Amino acid sequence: MSALDQQLIPIFEEVLGRNPGEAEFHQAVREVLESLGPVVTKHPQYADSAVIRRLCEPERQIIFRVPWVTDSGKIEVNRGFRVEFNSALGPFKGGLRFHPSVNLGIVKFLGFEQIFKNSLTGLPIGGGKGGSDFDPKGRSDAEVMRFCQSFMTELYRHLGEYTDVPAGDIGVGGREIGFMFGQYKRITNRYESGTLTGKGLSWGGSQVRTEATGYGTVFFVDEMLKAAGDSFDGKRVVVSGSGNVAIYAIEKVHQLGGTVVACSDSGGYVVDPAGIDLALLKEIKNGQRGRISEYAARRGNDVAHVADGSIWDVPCDIALPCATQNELDLEGAGALISNGCRIVAEGANMPTTPNAARLLTEAAVRFAPAKAVNAGGVATSALEMQQNASRDSWTFAHTEERLAEIMRGIHDRCLETADEYGTPGSYVAGANIAGFTRVADAMLALGVI
Ligand code: NDP
What is the 176 CA–ligand 1 centroid distance (Å)? Predict the structure, then answer.
């Protein structure tokens, strides 16, 4: 770990003491604090006003029981969460994750990151996150619907277009958003499209929202390449995961002239030297909710499926971790460096462990953090809210151009801020500082609330 500025040590100790056992939350806070030394030195008002201490404490945390009935009549009980972290810039905004690993610490790490990410977009959105330890995998559509209805029966009272606007994340796609929006509409008797984003196109959704996080990730990397006078042309790319973010990252890499040679799920990875066949991947993952091993089986002899191993062993020029937190560790980073990888950009949230990030940076691999790289998803959610508020719907081309423009803006803001604070070229410092100062200035203006 890097050292913390003296002024920030007591703040981090307070976070550790008040939030015991929440390792991922500690990691996310520390990662931001490590960048803020030059900021508190240059602007003592941030330390004097306790703005950083206030930022580390969520405005509100909601935990609730989610009982539901399986197809066979068994009663299951899950736990629901919504952490409304910071609303200085706008209504709380951030996804819902349904995965067995979800607990309060995970939701808090995601909500904390979301504050800075949303701030970086330049759009009027605060930060929040939520979810449940429910596992949609292997459940029928009817079971998923009953779960979503029960979840929303409690959560609806905390939501609203001016209050808190959830979206999808791991395990929450168009199907789940549909069931939750339906229940929200039914309970409130109001068609408030702006209360949830990631909706279907015929009922208030936005073009490009499905693709936005993956496309945005690749637009960001494209800017990194351009800044170095380079392009995607002929680049070999490894993308971990095969969910929403991964699939659309693969699509955009292929459109820009690169080749994605490997992708994965929690059961292993596939290597396809000719380039991932996206139509087949979408059919298996989106159509049949199947496993990546089926991809290798259907693609034939040249494609290997590796059940036990690390996708980071596959040689590449660019690596895009797009699955989950802490999936790229020290060993993975070492393998990427040995194989000549030049860029690592985080499509998933906090996928790189702190040690791995440090090793990559020391080896002069250009490393860009999630809060900048994957901000295209939430930015397009904000565009969805904008369309809902004006009862309008934009074309695919217009929305994609807005997304590309937002990603260019974030990229440039990161580099300019890194320069301004004496860490030229550091996307990590640039993203943390630019995200922090916008939200901190708003908090100062709003008084001690
Ligand atoms: P999906 O549920 O669509 O896909 C997740 C993918 O990651 C799947 O391939 C899944 O494999 C794999 N995965 C999940 N958990 C694990 C694990 N513990 N070990 C190994 N593989 C795992 O989620 P998304 O694509 O939406 O999200 C991926 C990441 O991107 C997350 O970090 C999320 O927070 C982040 N993100 C998503 C946004 C969005 O708009 N969707 C916006 C910003 C960030 P399997 O099916 O086997 O579980």
Answer: 15
Please tell me the residue having the least CA distance from ligand 1 atom 31: 348
Q: Containing domain of residue 173, as a range?
A: 60-192
Considering the domain architecture, whether residues 115 and 157 belong to the same structural domain is answered as: yes
Q: Are residues 145 and 228 in the same domain?
A: no
pLDDT tens for each residue of 117-150: 999 999 999 999 999 999 999 999 999 999 999 9
Distance CA 160, CA 389 (A): 12
**C-alpha 74 – ligand 1 centre gap (Å):** 28
- pLDDT bucket at 276, cuts 50 / 70 / 90: very high
With cut-offs at 50, 70 and 90, classify the pLDDT of residue 1.
low
Residue with CA nearest ligand 1 atom 38: 169
One domain for residues 179 and 77: yes
User: In this predicted structure, what is the pLDDT of residue 447?
Assistant: 95
Best of 265, 291, 312, 346 for a ligand 1 pocket test (most atoms within 8 Å of beta carbon)? 265
Tokens of 79: 């736990």
Q: Could you tell me if 332 and 236 lie in one domain?
A: yes
Q: Are residues 317 and 285 in the same domain?
A: yes
Output 270-274 pairs: Cβ under 8 A, ≥24 positions apart. Answer: 270/295, 270/296, 270/299, 270/303, 270/304, 270/305, 270/306, 271/303, 271/304, 271/306, 271/314, 272/299, 272/302, 272/303, 273/302, 274/302
Find the 323 Cα to ligand 1 centroid distance in Å.
Answer: 4
- The answer on pLDDT for 2 being more than 90 is no
Centre of ligand 1 to C-alpha 348, Å, is: 7
Classify residue 169: in a domain, yes or no. Answer: yes
Looking at 364, 399, 431, the residue that finishes a domain is 364
Q: Pull the structure tokens for residue 338.
A: 């040995």
The residues assigned a catalytic role are 129
Q: Mark whether 149 and 256 lie in a shared domain.
A: no
| Residue 101 Cα: closest atom of ligand 1 | 18
User: What atom in ligand 1 is closest to the CA of residue 378?
Assistant: 42
Residue 47's pLDDT is what? 83
- Residue positions counted in the chain: 449
- What's the distance, CA 146 to chain centroid? 26
Residues 125 and 230 in one domain: no
